[in-house]
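WARN retry 2 of 3 for item q-0093 after timeout on previous attempt; input resubmitted unchanged.
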Amino acid sequence: MNSKNPFKQAVNSLPQTTEIIIPNDTYELTGEQKRQLFKQTQMYIQLEEVIADLSQDLETDEEIAGYLPFTNEGNSAMATSGIMGMTYVNSAKAQTYRDNFHDLRGNRLLIFTNQRMIFTIIIEFLEERRYYSYPYNKIQGIRFEKHAVGYFDWQKGAILPKRQRTHWYSLDFQSQTNVFTEVLQPAEAKKFQELVEALPSLKAITIDKKMHRDNAFDYLFSQTKIGIWAFNALWIGILLLVIGSIILQLIRGEGRWIEWFEEIKQLSTAFNSSSFLKNIPIN
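OK item q-0093 returned
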């Protein structure tokens, strides 16, 4: 993952103009600063082009109210990194984006308008103009839940680590056949809450800690806890099956496990009775 991913910084600068340092008699940009400034400008311009292109599909009275950018560094990465994050880039715009941001499917953007939410993976929009629409009036409810995770902070000079807690949030909802699930950091969760307060159509939706789906099938297969439980149960079942098989073969005195034990016993006996051990001097 790109630990210095500038995507969020570039998106957060979209409503304002890009801050440019102008050299004067007492200050002159270094070569590295010039390269960084040029790259920052390229990123900003390309994101502006994405928003302008997508805005063509907005309704006459529809306006963009805010953005939530997501990356693999601070948000979910299950479907956008590794093998799942690989894609082949054909268009010139997508290739420029790839070279500027050093990213394929990792950078995503959730756009809030006064009528709906729009989600897109930047590389997919540039390559295929693909995005997903979530009208507020089609959302039954939104799951917005805070989670706490404990960890040990090893501070310099301390004998014992200090117990710390960090937080993250689940954001999940369904609009018609489209389901959205994402992990938010505290600053992003605060931004989402501000947008809820600013958009009456979004605020009118039920927001709680429950999973909301249009049918039982979607509800069942959207439960990550059920998936984790099923995965653990599978491996526990396999482990119990193997242990039970070994015990059963030992009780019956037959099977491959008995043969392996006999082979090990024979090797041990042969090694202990070998001339090599007899010739070792004992003081």
